[in-house]
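> example.struct
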């Protein structure tokens, strides 16, 4: 491999630079997860041992290198056994990465089921709700009008937000990548005031309005009647059942995912042709 420069007896190539960068990035991400915990102190010690082991191997100190390698092996095993919760947390964060989630379907969490169950239970108690599901491009300007949440979308969390006495129940909840980004968001109102001869309230006009301006699906629960509606592409569907909401969201979100996959495939094909 082409040598870039030398530091004493060490020769450094381009691959060495990339290797060092990747290892540094991995250690940084691990440190950002365990920062502020007792694990961080032991992590510092492990880094020192690894650094000393590297120096002894570079200097060809065989006896000291063997001793440090033995210590490193034992330390790594102890690290894995003692800090299973932190390691599990790191793996969960990796699994939640949008790039990973795009290719791997999470069977434990289905956003269509969560929202269908939530909408149904809210409708039974006639608690008004407005949930906006982002399909492709985020709506940051809308999200910034509300209160940041950044939590996994669950039925209990959504019901808590839309409970009438909750300080966040007014406005919309924005969901993207199966996570609640923000609550109490302000949405643009549709210019339409009636649909099929029926007057639209502010919640329905807001849900319809955002669907006219962005690639989203709005799920609306009426506070007056408990009826469930869905708005998409400026069209409003009313009087949906729990199964109707589930089937609609499942179909719409699957179509959106297929379009993204097709877009990636077309882009890759275009690059190959060029």
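> example.seq
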């Amino acid at each position: 491999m082409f040598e870039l420069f030398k530091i004493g007896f060490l020769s450094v190539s381009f691959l060495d630079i990339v290797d060092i960068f990747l290892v540094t990035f991995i250690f940084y991400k691990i440190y950002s997860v365990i920062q502020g915990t007792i694990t961080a102190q032991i992590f510092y010690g492990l880094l020192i041992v690894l650094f000393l082991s590297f120096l002894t191997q570079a200097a060809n100190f065989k006896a000291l290198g063997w001793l440090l390698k033995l210590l490193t092996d034992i330390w790594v095993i102890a690290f894995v056994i003692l800090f299973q919760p932190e390691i599990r947390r790191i793996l969960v964060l990796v699994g939640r990465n949008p790039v990973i989630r795009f290719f791997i379907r999470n069977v434990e969490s289905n956003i269509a089921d969560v929202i269908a169950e939530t909408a149904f239970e809210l409708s039974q108690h006639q608690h008004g709700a407005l949930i906006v599901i982002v399909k492709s491009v985020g709506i940051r300007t809308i999200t910034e009008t509300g209160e940041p949440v950044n939590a996994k979308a669950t039925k209990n969390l959504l019901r808590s937000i839309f409970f009438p006495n909750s300080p966040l129940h007014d406005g919309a909840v924005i969901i993207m990548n199966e996570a609640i980004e923000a609550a109490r968001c302000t949405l643009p109102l549709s210019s339409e005031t009636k649909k099929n001869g029926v007057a639209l309230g502010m919640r329905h006009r807001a849900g319809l309005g955002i669907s006219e301006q962005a690639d989203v699906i709005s799920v609306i629960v009426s506070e007056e009647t408990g009826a469930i509606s869905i708005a998409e592409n400026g069209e409003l569907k009313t009087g949906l059942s729990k199964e109707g909401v589930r089937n609609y969201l499942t179909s719409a979100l699957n179509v959106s995912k297929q379009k993204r996959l097709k877009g990636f495939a077309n882009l890759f094909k275009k690059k190959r042709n060029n």
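> remarks
DSSP finds ten helices and eleven strands in the chain.
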